[in-house]
Automatic annotation (TrEMBL):
GO molecular function, one term: DNA-binding transcription activator activity
Pfam families: AAA_lid_14, Response_reg, Sigma54_activat
4-aspartylphosphate: residues carrying this PTM: 49
Organism whose genome encodes this protein: Aquifex aeolicus (strain VF5)
Phosphoprotein is among the record's keywords: yes
Keyword Repeat among UniProt keywords: no
Official protein name in the record: Transcriptional regulator (NtrC family)
One GO term of the biological process aspect: positive regulation of DNA-templated transcription
Length: 448
């Protein structure tokens, strides 16, 4: 949307009429009206006359140039000094009257393009799928998993919606990222919509974005995940958790590729590939009324089922080797065989956690003694629980064990506990005040 600030009535009406052939335009004839409109609305470009009846246009430029709007200054009193001053104050461009309308249109389109890129870059960082160390091995010795990868390769360059099914921890997001990476969309964004972490009342605005003033606190326009994924892939993780109130709007978007920002007045269109993932039986959920049946059939055009790790044991040695590389550790053959025969209810994620924990806890070259599987530890857990310890006592015992095992290395303890070093220091101080004895009480890693 464009705001035209011009005190000359004839010129203002003429420009408005010409600009409305291509853009949405509002006008202001003086500084006061312009200031009110800029405070309430979210404009993309402002065409600003410097000489206004009640205020110098540079004052508006100073006041609103940091809001993200692109100012194109128009004046009949132009000189180099004025142009330089306006650019320093944040103006996008400077045009002197009389001007060619085609030049003005080109300048506006350039400003609109730059503003959109700035909005995308500003918002995209927090939502883009970031490549992690978890994007491991798609090499496989398993015929079942080879078949999965073959289907992924065949459908990568189609625009058909894909539904990836599989238990927790099998790597559904990794497969979705793989499909994106080998597709003709690989240079465009891969945006993740985590359906388990977005509150229901925020889902629509996170997905489709909102306009300035759409609700209390909407002080500027925000692009939604759908818009950020334009040209690339939109991945709905655990779509079975999506609120029913949003599913109808998602269905319409998938069918039309059109959406409307919250508080917006016009439909916008994007080009995205839709990939969904779930660990639930969506068909059964739809029969119980917990998931829209029409949405289920729409996203289920191509279904890929990832086998659990216990059904592709051939890949366990490959995965173990991959996880060990990061720490430069080794594992003995008999322990590896034990891992191959373990059921792995948490699949690849559980295997990764077991190996990484063992790598951190082991002091030598081999990790075998530090491997802790739930079946092996049942007896020691039962023995520890016989005294019915409180949660605080359990935490104290575990912290004392880690402190002694890792020789007081606070950094490693923080990694294992998944908390900050400051939290570890605080918990250790609390234990000391309770007169818990620690050997080698000096702490490595410095002070908080």
């Amino acid at each position: 949307m464009i705001l035209l600030v011009e005190d000359d009535d004839n010129l203002r009406e003429l420009l408005k009429k010409k600009l409305e052939e291509h853009f949405v335009v509002e006008t202001a004839k003086d500084g006061k009206t312009a200031r009110e409109k800029l405070s309430k609305n979210n404009y993309d470009v402002v065409l600003l006359d410097i000489r206004l009846p009640d205020v110098d246009g540079t004052e508006l430029l100073k006041e609103f140039s940091t809001s993200g709007v692109k100012f194109i200054v128009i004046t009949g009193y132009g000189d180099v000094k004025t142009a330089v001053q306006c650019v320093k104050l944040g103006a996008y461009d400077f045009i002197q009257k009389p001007f060619n309308f085609e030049l003005l249109e080109v300048t506006i389109r350039r400003a609109l393009k730059e503003k959109r890129l700035e909005e995308e870059n500003r918002t995209l960082k927090s939502f883009l799928f970031k490549e992690k160390e978890e994007d491991y091995l798609l090499e496989t010795r398993s015929p079942k998993f080879r078949e999965v990868l073959e289907i992924a390769r065949r459908i990568a360059n189609t625009d058909l919606p894909v539904l990836i099914r599989g238990e927790t921890g099998v790597g559904k997001e990794v497969l979705a990222k793989y499909i994106h990476t080998i597709s003709n969309r690989k240079d465009k964004p891969f945006v993740v919509v985590d359906c388990t972490s977005i509150p229901e009342h925020l889902f629509e605005s996170e997905l489709f974005g909102y306009e300035k003033g759409a609700f209390t606190g909407a002080n500027t326009r925000k692009l939604g995940l759908v818009e950020l994924a334009n040209g690339g892939t939109l991945f709905f993780d655990e779509i079975g958790e999506m609120p029913l109130s949003i599913q109808a709007k998602l269905l319409r978007f998938i069918e039309t590729r059109k959406f409307r920002r919250v508080g917006g007045l016009k439909d916008l269109e994007v080009d995205v590939k839709i990939i969904c993932a779930t660990n639930k039986d969506l068909y059964e959920k739809s029969k119980r009324g917990e998931f829209r049946e029409d949405l289920y059939f729409r996203i289920n055009t191509v279904e890929i089922e990832i086998p659990p790790l216990r059904e592709r044991k051939e890949d366990i040695p490959l995965l173990v080797e991959f996880f060990l590389k990061k720490y430069g550790k080794k594992i003995k053959k008999e322990t590896l065989n034990e891992l191959i025969n373990y059921p792995w209810e948490g699949n690849v994620r559980e295997l990764k956690n077991v190996i990484e924990r063992a790598c951190i806890l082991s002091t030598g070259e081999y990790i075998d003694e530090a491997i802790c599987l739930s079946k092996k530890s049942v007896s020691c857990v039962e023995k520890m629980m016989e005294k019915l310890p409180s949660l605080e006592e359990l935490e104290g015992m575990y912290l004392k064990f880690l402190y002694e095992k890792l020789e007081g290395d606070v950094d490693k303890i923080a990694v294992i506990l998944g908390c900050s070093r400051r939290t570890v220091f605080r918990k250790l101080k609390k234990l000391r005040e309770g007169k818990v004895h620690f050997k080698n009480a000096s702490l490595s890693g410095g002070t908080p």
